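Example record used in the benchmark description.
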Amino acid sequence: MIDSALSHFHSNIVPEEREQPVDWAQAVDTSVIVPAYNEEEALPCVLSELVSTLDKTYEIIVIDDGSKDCTGSIAGEYPVRLIRHEENQGKGAAMRTGIDAARGRKIIFIDADATYPVNQIPAIAERLDQYDLVRGIRLEGRDNIPVLNRLGNNFFVWLIGIMHQGESVDALTGLYGLRSEALRRMRLHSSGFDIESEIVIKAGAMRLRSICIPIEYNERLGEKKLNPFLDGLKILRRIAALAVMYKPFPAYVLPGLGLWVLAFLGMVLLADGPLLTSFAGFTTNSFVFSAMAFLAGFQLIVFGLIVNLYATETGIGVPSRTLSNVANKIPRTGGAVVSLLMMFLGTFITIAKIISWSSQGFGPFEDTRGLILALATIVWGMQLMCTMFILSLFSGSGKIGGR
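Model output (structure tokens):
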């Protein structure tokens, strides 16, 4: 399925084969990527300024994302590398195509709607010698942003700051640059306007060195493409999905710890029998529920560690202190020993209760709490053993723990 999807994706990319008026064999330091969809009105302004502003250390890559107007033919009149999508795939997909084709060690993105100042590109390229990410922050001309888009942008800036605890000023700006190696390590997936939120969030997770420069935002030329509701929903979904992936502590560990503690208290309170109060009665069923919640809480904590492990192994996240400590050889060995003892103890108690039950002629079984506790101990031990095994598989990579 993945291969067929990739095949379909590449089949929609048609490189423009024509003689270039510049020597592309020369050393290129910076690639400027211009994703364009039905931008015949604004694109000439953008490309004319790019060509007059940039020297031969830059390459300009225009991605015609399945335009229905003259965008592609207009781009063909300029000294640029033109790549065409047969069908419209979205801004993010166009940018990813440009990244694959880029040859510079620095990559700068600029929208094709003439809203961003081309003359700031050399300043961005210069700062990329010291920083991994340079973003143009729209401090002037914000009145040129439609009201709904402006409100949505402010909301997403706030949300990214809350959910990802990172610097998120004007997170959705369309003029920014990254070092090629950092950008490729991000393994971008977005196909639409959520690409900017993915980049800024992953940059924070990777702890890239970043800086912002003030720019002026101009009135767009041509028809706007961003739908404040549909695209806003995609951006919101992307922010939430990345929080689940790269912020495991608030997403999994913290809820797991809360559930774990509450479930443990429930089992302690119900260990000696039913608990009857003026508003409710808690019996054996409540004890069973507490035991299951205890296991579920532990599983959430473990899953948080695994998610952090995945982010670390992909090179996007960094290992948490807890993960680094638990993944070391001595804690892993200790965890494995404890898990074996728990499984042995739970099994021993379970067998003892079955023997006791058989000695009574297999009549009504009365010690449900004891049996549930013994079985929960076995399952808890198995969970812990599996966790130690998973950590041992990845501990040799050098990114977490030690052998």
